Task: inverse folding
């Protein structure tokens, strides 16, 4: 299935890295949209049809977890799969992310890890 | 966490450069045999502050050739300007620091890292963090040298 992917990450360089990793992967991708913080991410969810979100945690204006909380409360967004990409190392927080049915990818990450995490979400 | 941390930080940095920038470590003997790489001159440094289980900062200073290669390899482009190079360096610093601070965690007490920034040209980090412990290490890569300094003061236990 070709999908539209939303990258929510405050660092423009990291957005390029993630985008490049996605386009070089074997995943079928239609469009990749980019947002610089959680609020922009929510705005883009309302504007475009998104099939997968890749979200950083620590961002200005609205962080990634707050954005994902808002998305989970919204009937149109709650079923969109999400992968959190972060340097987060706190096991309790990572467990909480996984318990919510989201994927977690630790930075630095390989293309293979990102791809596997997305495929695993697809197979749920 | 007990000093020295340099070796562990070196491993974290090498792993980050390998995965994110497709660069590989050089051994000392490779440097001696090959063309000598230029040392970082400190003209561009990224600082990441952290607090919580330990207070401190990590400073990463790449050589000019390494800085250029970091940006080019991360962005997949030969055309990078100063802003892109700064962003790439800050993201590398963010990842290395983010993977380093768990070394300071004790029980439930963890570290929080702050957004990375580029140091002012005349910013003297040794003065800024003069009351903290300091460790420095070099990361020798096939694309150049990165100097990493960590300043830290750990919280008293109990």
Result:
């Amino acid at each position: 299935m070709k999908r539209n992917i939303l990258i929510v990450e405050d660092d423009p360089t990291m957005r390029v890295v993630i985008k490049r990793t996605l386009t070089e992967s074997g995943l079928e991708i239609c469009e990749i949209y980019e947002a610089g913080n959680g609020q922009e991410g929510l705005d883009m969810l309302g504007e475009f049809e998104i099939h997968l979100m890749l979200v950083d945690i620590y961002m200005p204006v609205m962080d990634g977890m707050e954005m994902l909380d808002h998305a989970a409360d919204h009937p149109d967004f709650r079923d969109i799969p999400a992968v959190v990409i972060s340097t987060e190392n706190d096991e309790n927080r990572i467990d909480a992310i996984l318990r919510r049915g989201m994927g977690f990818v630790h930075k630095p990450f390989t293309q293979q890890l990102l791809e596997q995490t997305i495929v695993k979400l697809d197979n749920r | 966490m007990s000093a020295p941390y340099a070796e562990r930080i070196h491993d974290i940095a090498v792993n980050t450069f390998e995965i994110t920038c497709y660069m590989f470590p050089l051994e000392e003997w490779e440097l001696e045999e090959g063309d000598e790489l230029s040392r970082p001159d400190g003209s561009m440094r990224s600082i990441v502050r952290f607090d919580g289980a330990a207070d401190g900062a990590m400073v990463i200073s790449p050589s000019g050739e390494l800085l250029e290669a970091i940006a080019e390899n991360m962005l997949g482009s030969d055309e990078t300007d100063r802003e892109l190079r700064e962003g790439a360096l800050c993201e590398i610093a963010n990842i290395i620091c983010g993977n380093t601070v768990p070394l300071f965690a004790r029980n439930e007490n963890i570290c929080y890292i702050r957004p990375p920034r580029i140091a002012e040209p005349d910013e003297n980090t040794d003065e800024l963090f003069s009351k903290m412990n300091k460790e420095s290490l070099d990361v020798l890569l096939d694309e150049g040298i990165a100097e990493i300094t960590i300043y830290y003061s750990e919280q008293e236990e109990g």
Observations:
- Chain A has one domain: 3-122.
- Chain A touches chain B through 18 residues (CB under 8 Å).
